[in-house]
Amino acid sequence: MNKTEFLLSLEKKLVALPTHEIEVTQGFYSEMIDDRIEDGMREEDAVAAIGDVDTIVQNTLLELPLPTLMKAKIQPKAGLKLWEIVLMVLGFPLWFPLVLAFFIVILAVYVSVWAVIISLYASVAAFAFSGVAGIISLLFAQSFAAGLLMFGLSLICIGIAVLAFFGVTKLSSWLIGLTRRFLRWVKSLFLKKEVV
Amino acid sequence: MDIQLKRGLLEICVLTVLNRGDSYGYQIIKDVSPYIEISESTLYPILKRLETNQSVVVNSVEHNGRLRKYYKITTTGRNRIVDFLDNWKEVMTVYNFITEEMRCYTDE
């Protein structure tokens, strides 16, 4: 395969993407082939060294935002035939709730992860607040012993808040990473061969 | 190697190579490949991601009558290398613990 054939084949397989996206991708691989040729390779060898077009297409598609990817994979290449339109209309009560459920599940995963993060920070804030409130309450202490106990408890609360803050921050970044992996997995469902 | 781990490592390797100076796609592959397996199809999404999260900036420079894209590391990119090294210290502590434990276990 020569360079022109390679770039054409890439364009054909990425056809569902926006034109700009296709041009940028072609530009990148064209530059790569030219650089290899400049390095002393034959054109065919340079193209072969770049790798297989399908792998490139898979890797490119996985990086796209989910709606663009779905549009690219689901949108029919040619216009719809009459029977397909009839089937779509008749099947609406079936496919619409399924599509809706699909998005709601994705949303639910995100909402629950964020709910965990928010509740963890809320607990940290609660500890900090009780610590501060405890110290203020010293002004109204009934006796020295009660005041001392309150002071100790307040310091414990503030200590827990400070330590937990770092733990919660780490945990949150891990959870956010988890949502990214989840999204990548959802995207891989739209690709034939899983290359996540 | 675990795919997620490899993706993360490749990003940092690319940033490290760019930390030496601005570079272009093919040169990055040549510089990174002695250390970790990398191909054009893996580099392309990595560079796109690094560009999106502002770890690198891109500019086109004319070279032999065609345009070549040069990538330049930003402060955000450098900070990512520093963060990676900090995190990796913890990983190394765990790694040393596990290898030591396993060595004692196999010695017994």
CATH superfamily caption of chain B: Winged helix-like DNA-binding domain superfamily/Winged helix DNA-binding domain
Classify the secondary structure makeup of chain B into a structural class.
Answer: alpha+beta
The total tally of domains of chain A equals: 2
Largest interface: A-B, 21 and 20 residues
The strand count of chain A comes to 0
What is the residue-mean pLDDT of chain B, rounded to a whole number?
90
Distance between the termini of chain A: 27 Å
Characterize the overall form of chain B: elongated
Q: From the helix content, strand content and strand pairing of chain A, which structural class follows?
A: mainly alpha
Helical amount of chain A:
over 70%
List the helices and strands and how they pair.
The complex is a heterodimer of chains A (196) and B (108).
Chain A: H1 3-13, H2 19-38, H3 43-50, H4 53-62, H5 66-74, H6 82-90, H7 92-137, H8 144-188
Chain B: H1 3-20, E1 23-24, H2 25-32, H3 40-52, E2 56-63, E3 66-73, H4 75-107
Antiparallel strand pairs in B: 1-3, 2-3
Helix pairs in contact in B: 1-3, 1-4
